[in-house]
Design brief:
four-stranded mixed beta sheet, Transcription Regulator spoIIAA, 367 residues, alpha/beta, 12 helices, 2 domains
């Protein structure tokens, strides 16, 4: 094995030539050579390097960044340039040692955040348009849709989530009834707890709680599974086979959640109403027969349809964000974790915003 070498090429000491083997076996020597390199450096010629591994590339990359040079200032051997390009692509930027403070720094961070949000919104809108086009093409030729995959995703997305949705909505329904009764009893109107639970769950809580649970459970699952496929280059393999990843991977998932969320919202409504019934019977001295009778007399179907009209929209948002974040994973486990977290945050935030806008819209229409 030949040791790594570093040779100054001119009197100005602004260019050096590297040679030998820049591998992990010579890690100490590499560190020593780079620490003693000239400070006036402008160019590194690594075309004479006999062998280099990821450690050597990383050490040279960090050395170049410390000297405030461009990565293009390194001349690589043609057999080593691909390794350098791959490491350059996946290398994580080190965080700044200190957070910048002051008005200009705060405005800079705000501007970057706004730009990032607008970029994500534009990417999401473009991805949704692409999915819609592929869905219309599939609707014309239904044989292209993989029904087995749709059913499988419906099972994991909907059926497996029924116990959690039912339990959570039952408890929330009980809490709403109990808190409402504490307020209404001062006016001798405890019986109006029935309308409070019915309207709140049929219009808002049922579909919203089901959507939030799916946003945390399914959006993260979609991002993790698709991101893992990107990391293992399975998506590239699908393209190599002449298949469309949108049709093979995305459409079945989005169609499954669109079909599943209305059913889960219905289960959530039933569980919430049952929670109110139980509290009414055991804490408010409202017999179940009286509770059900008042529910039958006062409940209106329009509240149910208002809540159900939100379910497909929430499902499209959750499925689109989850799949988009999964397909944009950069190839590292760090990127996979970041995109999974981003999918959950974006899905929940968007669902709540859309729910608020739709609630105001329906109130304006007096529906």
């Amino acid at each position: 094995m030949s040791a790594p070498t570093l040779q100054v090429l001119n009197d100005r000491q602004d260019a050096i030539r590297l040679g030998g083997e820049w591998t992990i076996d010579h890690a100490d020597t590499i560190v020593e050579l780079l620490s003693n390199a000239p400070t006036t450096l402008k160019c590194l010629d690594a075309r004479q390097v006999e062998e280099i591994d990821s450690l050597g590339v990383l050490q040279l990359r960090r050395f170049v960044l410390r000297r405030k040079l461009e990565l293009d200032d390194v001349l690589w051997h043609r057999e080593h340039s691909e390794l350098a390009a791959v490491i350059d692509e996946v290398a994580d930027e080190r965080p700044k040692s200190r957070r910048e403070i002051g008005l200009s720094a705060a405005l800079s961070r705000l501007g970057k955040s706004v730009t990032r949000v607008l970029s994500e919104f534009r990417a999401g809108l473009g991805f949704f348009g692409e999915v819609l086009v592929k869905f219309l093409r599939t609707a014309v030729r239904p044989g292209r849709l993989r029904f087995t995959s749709v059913v499988s995703h419906m099972e994991s997305t909907g059926l497996d989530a029924v116990p959690l949705v039912a339990l959570l909505c039952f408890m929330v329904g009980a809490v709403v009834a109990f808190l409402g009764a504490n307020v209404l009893k001062d006016f001798g109107a405890e019986i109006y707890v029935v309308e409070l639970v019915n309207i709140s769950f049929l219009r808002e809580f049922g579909v919203l709680l089901a959507a939030i649970l799916l946003a945390g459970r399914t959006a993260s699952s979609y991002t993790a599974s698709l991101g893992s496929m990107v990391n293992r280059e399975e998506v590239d393999a699908i393209r190599t086979l002449g298949l469309d990843p949108i049709e093979v991977l995305v459409l079945p998932r989005i169609l499954a959640i669109v079909l599943t969320l209305p059913m889960l919202a219905f289960v959530a409504d039933l569980a919430g109403l049952l929670g109110g019934l139980v509290v009414g019977a055991y804490s408010l001295d409202i017999p179940p027969q009286q509770y059900l009778s008042r529910m039958h007399d006062t409940i209106e179907s329009r509240h149910f349809w208002v809540g159900m009209s939100k379910a497909p929209i929430f499902a499209l948002v959750i499925g689109t964000i989850g799949c988009l974040e999964g397909l944009t994973v950069k190839g590292t486990t760090t990127s996979l974790g970041e995109h999974t977290t981003s999918a959950v945050v974006q899905s929940i935030s968007t669902v709540i915003v859309i729910d608020a806008l739709m609630a105001m819209f329906y109130m304006t229409l007096d529906v």
